[in-house]
Amino acid sequence: MKKIFCIGELLIDFIAENQGNDLAKAEVFTKKPGGAPANVACAIAKLGGLSKFIGCVGPGQFGSFLLGVLEDNHVDISLTQRSKSFTTIAFVSIAEDGERDFVFSRGADKKLKYDSTIKKSFQDNMVHFGAATALLGGDLEAAYGRYFFDALTQDAFISFDPNFRGDLWKGDEHIFIKKCMPYIQKAHLSKFSLEEAQLISGKTDLEECCAVLHEIGTKVITITLGGEGTLLSTENSKHTIPSIPVNPVDTTGAGDAFIGCLLQQIANLHNPKEILEDIDLLIGMVKIANKAGALTTTNFGAIPSLPDQEQLQAN
Ligand code: ATP
């Protein structure tokens, strides 16, 4: 089984209670672990995969709480760093339609230092670049770029999720798009939400979105469509793969569960790059990953709702 390195932020989400999408009115917040790459690492490990988290948390109880969550979910934290900066937090509002809004207070996540000793272990393994905050400057962006270079030179299987957060890029969306380009160009697998696919490609029609994204370079594209399932696109074919019907209560983490489950299955192949040539294999994997995404919406919070193998098989 291949190891999957997940690089990026691990933070505390303070979720506003009962105030729709109005953070200004919110008075009560619930503390939850968050950060897309950390969610993905947990999704993989909970399904029995080997995930290692490369990221940085702060000192004190918040940092310890987050490391404890990763450990409880069997994520390898031997590469997770602690800095003197406070643990990053995000205030999150969830509107009635499930749409989320974020206000970030960044601390330790951007202090991640590059560690040149990790490079060798990327060889023949898989690296997932899915940080929402990685392209915003600071040590994290520098480390991210160097780990990306290492993943390329070590011939690792590379997965990319842009995790666009409007709040972080207001007015600078064009910079975000530009910074995503090398990752989309080189990734073996890229996962987009519909909003991200449209923003980055500059197209609204899904066929046209895929054409532009393939032209940039990525071989396999998944565009997650919420309750509608997932569009899987390769240069030769496109398939919309429906999800399973559920009664969603909170969609947080569905995309992370999806990509985590897909990567966990790919990691079981002798050669992960096999999926680039085998569309039937990919379709089967996306069907299962859709289930993981759907099941995650049936409970509150991202990490506690991630399914294990037993739940996945039962549905
Ligand atoms: P995130 O919100 O975590 O950034 P995202 O927007 O990429 O992620 P979604 O499209 O909401 O993620 O969900 C990912 C996958 O989970 C979908 O492709 C689908 O398979 C499944 N899913 C999400 N919502 C539902 C739903 N309401 N019913 C059934 N399946 C769902």
TrEMBL record:
Please list the residue ranges annotated as the Carbohydrate kinase PfkB domain.
1-308
PROSITE patterns in the cross-refs? PFKB_KINASES_1
InterPro entries noted in UniProt = Carboh/pur_kinase_PfkB_CS, PfkB_Carbo_kinase, PfkB_dom, Ribo/fructo_kinase, Ribokinase-like
Name of a matching Pfam family:
PfkB
Which key words tag this protein in UniProt? Answer: Kinase, Transferase
Q: Which SUPFAM superfamilies match?
A: Ribokinase-like
Q: Name one GO molecular function term.
A: kinase activity
Q: Which family does it belong to?
A: Belongs to the carbohydrate kinase PfkB family.
* Name used for this protein in its record: Carbohydrate kinase
At the highest ranks, the source species' classification is: Bacteria, Pseudomonadati, Bacteroidota, Flavobacteriia, Flavobacteriales
